[in-house]
TrEMBL record, chain A:
It is a peripheral membrane protein. Pfam families: ABC_tran (PF00005), oligo_HPY (PF08352). The lineage of its organism: Bacteria, Pseudomonadati, Pseudomonadota, Alphaproteobacteria, Hyphomicrobiales. GO terms for molecular function: ATP binding. It is found in: Cell membrane. Residues 9-258 form the ABC transporter domain. This is ATP-binding cassette domain-containing protein. Keywords: ATP-binding, Nucleotide-binding, Transport. Belongs to the ABC transporter superfamily. Transmembrane segments: none annotated. Its main location: membrane. InterPro entries: AAA+_ATPase, ABC_transp_ATP-bind, ABC_transporter-like_ATP-bd, ABC_transporter-like_CS, Oligopep_ABC_C. It comes from the Bacteria.
Amino acid sequence: MNNAEAPLLRVDNLEKRFEIGGRLLAAAKTVRAVDDVSFAINKGETLGLVGESGCGKTTVGRLVLRLIEPTAGEITFDGTDLKSLQPAEMRAMRRDLQIIFQDPLGALNPRMSVGELIIEPMVIHGIGTPAERYRRLGELLNLVGLARYHAGRFPHEFSGGQRQRICIARALALNPRFIVCDEAASALDVSIQAQILNLLQDLKAELDLTYLFISHDLGVIRHISDRVMVMYLGKVVEYGDKQQIFERPAHPYTIALLRSAPARHKGKTRYRAIAGDLPSPFDPPPGCPFHSRCPIAREICTSTPPPLSPVAGGTHQAACHFAGEMTL
Amino acid sequence: MIVYDISMIDGAETVPERSAGAERSTRQPAGGPVAQSDTAAPPLLEVRNLKVAFGAVPVVSGVSFTVHQGEVVGIVGESGSGKSVSALALMRLLPRHAHISAERMNFCGEDLLSADRRRYEQLRGADIAMIFQEPMTALNPVLTVGEQIAETLRRHERLGRRQARARAIDALARVGIPAPARRVDDYPHQMSGGMRQRAMIAMALACQPRVLIADEPTTALDVTIQAQILELLQDLQEEFQMGTVMITHDLGVVSSFADRVMIMYAGQVVEDASAAQAFASPKHPYTEGLLASIPLSQSDVDRLYAIPGAVPPPFDLPPGCRFEPRCAASRPPCREARPVLYPCGDDHRVACIRPTGYVFPDRGECNE
């Protein structure tokens, strides 16, 4: 129904404001958790979303699935405007849009067996007969590297890595086309993290999936993404192909992030950290949100917020008045 | 071998034995004589064959390391490898049912195994300080950070209230907290994560300890804040020439920070080398696997190497090499006995028989 170029998911000017406090005499404070975020993900692509705590990356993931309602903006999935859908329609739509969370134990009902947990989405959406669901359960367990006998066990009997496999099987139960992976491998030890990342990549190839992959870990983002979006205090500061972001970053914040990541092969090195704390999202700096920590900030940065604009033409974009002035 | 049962501590006063080193409980002033790292001065910390068991379950089996003045030793491992328990055993901060034994556990030549509870109270916080992963739980939420830093100074240096407060402000200034005279009255919840970690470092370093044990000091922090804290720790390390033990799961942090690295797996040290050696030419299959399984922000790989399986639980360890069931290079002899650390090249030791052609070098413990 679509022409070949239309992205599978398209997000335009997404915005989410949270009202905090506001009781009796105290005025409510407004936090712009997500401020004017736009991106598009093509079918079969992985968009990596990276940033530090409080940058709004998790909120973006939830807004896309309408797990929380956006304040403004458009979300278009395969030609359908998700914001216009009625609750029942949205529920049906969620067969195509799934999410995997960071903490698998928190995401799994401890009183349900693994089999029940994986079958539950099919029951809710009324898919298949019991026999068909049971057959599908076997397929799913096999797909994520678990054995059929695991179906009768409970989440607490599994290790962290296996629990994440259960969550993945559950997310795959309805044959989704798009999955938000929210720090899906971050809570795991490195040797297990590699297993889960490889599994997610295999599943993507095998099942023709599209991912929005959210992580604070730059190495993981580089490894798994085709394109990368860097967020800071609710805003997109840089957006581009993986190679552009990691090899030729244009925004001082992206450069600071990459310089902060410990390099393993350099041996003992002195850290040269950027100064300052993350500003409070209640009280973001005027102008460019990064100017309070930016080594190349000038007068204009304190007053005028820089728009996201193309760097050296093409698809690479950065929100900096002096994009490209610093190099990695 | 001295077997020390931690449940004795609270019986306490029945162990009057003090070793000679206990005399130097008065602190040397800052900038005091910086001992040459020649062989004459005893190392700050010397641990030989440390074992810890909870009941019948061994969680640390035979950890040995030495820390000299100005040296940073990194202990790396995944969860359950025994890295934190080793440090807590050294600090004697484990619960009563922990059974600790060692051939030797010395601080500046003083035997820690026979030190009593009172001696440990003198040492902890004054000579040997520790910083923890989560400053929000390690700091007392109902006391201001200033009170908590002052408490250490009042206790160990017998300072008066006013003096201790002034020193606490100095300590906060030294760790880069802006407006320290004002922040000294903040409660922990009023600070950001990075500031809290700075406050905890200020507390640990207030009495100028000779040994600092940092247990995952940056794990809970964002990357730009992590870089700030590591930069601060590097500055302080250079300034005070402490012996530092850095415990972490992050190989990147260790490689950029430590002089020497020990890789732990299932309660055992499997590789012990200079940081440069351990990362440039790892000898243990586990170290190799770990390095290949971590995606880097500096380079691309097509596919990560994933070590198959999972870490065995401490109550169900394989009889031979503990890594054998997951090891890509395993051979039948690996299942026969557990390899201990064998010398393998210059200043490099590895608990693996692959470098010797799958022959156990001596079937015995390897002590230098």
